[in-house]
Amino acid sequence: MDEIIIVEYEPLWSQQFEEEAATIWQVLGNDLVTRIEHFGSTAVPGLAAKPIIDLLVGVNSLEEAKCHVPLLKALGYVYWQEDPRPGRMFLVKGMPPYGFQRTHHLHIVEADSALWERLLFRDYLRSHPDEVQRYAALKRQLAECSKTDREAYTNAKTDYIQAVMAQARSHSTSYLTKNSYPK
């Protein structure tokens, strides 16, 4: 069972991101990787979250990145080869039944991916603590209702996220600037 558990914000999450980003960059190399961002709830100080570090990895070529899957598997990642979302690779570290608990999600995309826009959501929450509290309350409520249904939990957040994204788009273009690993 892959239960959804929301925990209080842990300041060590940013350090865990930095460590994993350094490892990923070293394994994939400078010729492939263009940037690595910490996104998702663990990237927002003060936000309760599932304790899973999301890394958004920019690469020059997804086809070339696929050649590096064995190196990522050696780090404990499981590659979801059948991912129905085009234009990305998704890997999980600690993926049940191969691990006790998910610890990292690796999202690998090219520079033109729409996934980069998710950084707007992260940056908006980082600068709006009142929104962080609203989102945390929603996440706790939805996790309680969908304890073992990850897809239902994610889908139930869609309207809220879209509303915040509309606000974020009107306030910022921060995802276009590099605020990534390495610093």
From TrEMBL:
InterPro entries: GrpB/CoaE, NT_sf. It holds the Pfam family GrpB. It comes from the Bacteria. PANTHER family: GRPB DOMAIN PROTEIN (AFU_ORTHOLOGUE AFUA_1G01530) (PTHR34822), GRPB FAMILY PROTEIN (PTHR34822:SF1). This is GrpB family protein. It comes from Gloeocapsopsis dulcis AAB1 = 1H9.
